[in-house]
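Weekly sync notes, structure subgroup
Attendees: PM, AL, DS (notes)

Item 1: joint prediction request from the bench team. They want all two components modeled as one assembly rather than separately. Inputs as received:
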Amino acid sequence: MVTDLRKCVGCQACTSACNSEWDVPAGFARTRITHTPVTGTFPTLAAGILVAQCSHCDDAPCIAPCPSGATFRDANGIVQVNRELCIGCGFCVEACPYQARFINPVIKKVDKCDFCSPRLARGQEPACVTTCTAHAKFFGDLEDRHSEVFRMVYTEGAQRRESDDIAVGPNVYYLGKPSQVQLVMNTFPPRKPKLPVSGTLWEKLAKPAILGAVGLTFLGQAIAFFHQLRHGEKDHED
Amino acid sequence: MSKTITRRRFIGTCGAVGAAAGLVGTGRPLQAQGRPPGWRGTLRVKKVASVCEMCFWRCGILASVAAGRVLRVEGNPDHPMTKGRLCARGNAGTSLLYDRDRLKFPMMRVGKRGEGQFKRITWDEALDFLAEKLKGIKQAHGAESVAFFPHGVSASFFSILMKAYGTPNSAEPAFAQCRGPREVGYALTFGRGLGSPEPVDLEETKLMVFIGTHIGENVFTSQVTAFAEGLAKGAKLVVVDPRFSTAAEKADWWLPIRPGTDIALLLAWIHVLIEENLCDQDYLKQYANGFDKVAAHVKSFTPEWAEKITQIPADRIRETARAMGKAKPAVALHPGRHATWYGDDTQRARAMAILTALLGAWGRKGGIFLPTSSPKGSFDLPDYPEPTRPRADGAGTTYPLASEELGVTNGLVDATLTGKPYPIKAWIVYGQNSLQSIPQQERTKKAIDSLDLMVVVDVMPNDHVLWADLVLPEATYLERYDPPAVSESAKVPFVSVRFPAIAPLYESKPGWWIAQQMAKRLGLEAFFPWKTPEEHFATIIEPMDLNAEELMVRGAMPFPGRPYLDDRIAAGETLFETDSGKIELYSARLKELGFDPLPVYTPIEDPPDGYFRLLYGRAPVHSFARSENNEQLFGLMPENELWMQASVAQHLGLQDSQRVILENQDGVKSLPVRLKVTQGIHPDCVYMVHGFGQRSRLLSRAGGKGASDTELMTRVKIDPIMGGTGMRVNFVKPVALGPGR
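Output from the run, pasted for the record:
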């Protein structure tokens, strides 16, 4: 996905179309417009607009912390959330450097942009791209050398929103005047992923622990089941 | 004991996690995932092409309908103007359709006016009541004592009814509170106004000039597309605005003008163009009258003169004028839309029109293009009765160049208050929120309170509904037929029509039905000689040379346009329908009527100490005072904020995000509004988005949210040429509220 910031006027048609397409509750958004504060002193000023959504990062920091395996990357490279697996714990929300995820208060599960995967499957572009009043959003396959987005990224120099600290390979790019893109990048740097415990500790200890607990549940259930099968239901004192 | 507890606890606590994990194997294919329940399922979804009415630009939409419900409204890719693109409001159409606060049934007032106490009645009761009242008023006071305030294409049926009833008194805010001065100023110069959509060739231009236009915050889908495509093609942009607008962010030249001095800047630009010989002389020789008079007129209006007035450095004025001269004739000087600012607005529009003409940009590629009309079918109607008394709003008399078709709303308010030229006894307000659209709210309320009858036809219980004696719930644009309309001034002109996507909800009714039912009761059936919308539709499009069925299915169809003068010259057409048949740089007509034949800068009153000029504008996610309660749009923007220059805020000790109340020069106070402290605004003024601060508690979301600019407009400066209400003549001071709320 490439957004041309020279064209975007921040009209929020993308947000509204997305909200309607995916029944995102009012006040929440999978794709969001944020204006930078005006910089400079009157009358020498600059300002810009950020169009943010899930960046489907190459090294997506949201996948690892998911305790239930709901967040995963599909064959097209799109980071997906399997809602039936999601337990709404919100660890991934904290882990995302772009604040692209939120807990949907209606379904109590995590919600985010999936590049409109079902629309893609029907051969349609994402709803935000189709509706964009400024024709500022472009979607395509970066591995296709003949695609519009390939040209924008590799010839015109569209940029990723990364910092020296946080470089996870986001697949949402921004085109624009260098000063304008710089202003947006500086104003909205990626956030350091927040995990319940430190990343390594989480990977090494906490996650196996939860998975272990999940496994033990089954084990426990199985033992109880066979126990009851063999001995019949007995009353227990509480 | 401890053993059993342990086991149960283990199962209990892990159960939740386990239950979720246990679903691994049963996950449905990804495609189906993410679809909200009931979205599609096994239901067949029908797509109905129609015309959006979240505003009045006439964008093409497709409504997805299943089981009698509109699931989604999206852009119609087949639409000649919008090609599938649709703004935030258009995408939120279903939130209007299913708004819990909609007017659902006909209602009769039971409390006092303004209280909003109603009882539900039937349509028969409502229509019989209205018919009896209208008959009585006609008998006692004459048909002219009924004033009609329409807005939107669905009101056109009721307009026929009102003319047939015999009143000439019809007025919409689209003229005297909005585009009127512009239409009159350009018509005086070129022989025709601009219309909607504005025929500005943004896509093909080399230079865009915005003076009184904030595209980006003001969103009309295809206009934003053309703006962005024009920029992408390399057009330069000049933005004149006291506020650092979204367009200003993109501008090559932002000229933060001192509010109210635009005419001085325009005159200085004209001065430079003439002085430095940058005008399109061939074009002017061929098409225009009065060049020498303009040259003599602007002789002393140097950039240095204008700098003192506008606070824009003289060299910036020269630089931008030269950029125009270089880009001519492909200069898209946007004529603006809302133009009723200071009471000399027709003259400002004239200055813009003259500038456009000097650049040779009218009717030229990259400038202002020309509309193409289409024949329209009509019914064989009886003659409308000739009113025995002239219009009460002053259109054509007090305000000599006011449109008699669109009328002067404030003229009708005046007539109602004063009883002159004759008493007005009833208002029928159709699809316009008259308390939020007409300034001087207290006068409007007083006028309403003096009436024998106040009727509102609308979709939402906006502020004015609270003042109605009778409320008639209209169906939304997704539930009704509206007649085919020709968008003549689109680059590719087209005809489009609205057929219902679903049947009206609750007891709401389409405008055509309401008008027809009333006609029956008033004995005016002869003015509605058609039975069904389909029959009406067929007659209107009969001479249009297009396939009726195809239009119904596609929602809109283009026809060939002739956008440039060259197209017209080839056809031997009249190019300028002015008195002289040429572009009138110098207006003999204005001179004759006793007005300045060439625009003159007149200083306006400065804000008193401690006060700031109140400016207002639009947000991309709301339309006027119509959409603030829409759940989805409310989610995007629940309230407005007050822009204030950082240096001023610091001086006043005010903080960003703090809530303040605004008090105007007459002591009128607003609801609390949040401050936006920014460098991006001229220190003389403050700014807010219009449409908020509605008091109607029948609006469960928007009621009481934000501040209303209209409420603070206790003063207006009337444009003597066309009767428009200049509204930027009000001053406010912020009064801090305690921390927090």
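Discussion: Chain A has a mean pLDDT of 89.
Action: AL to compare against the crosslinking data before next sync.
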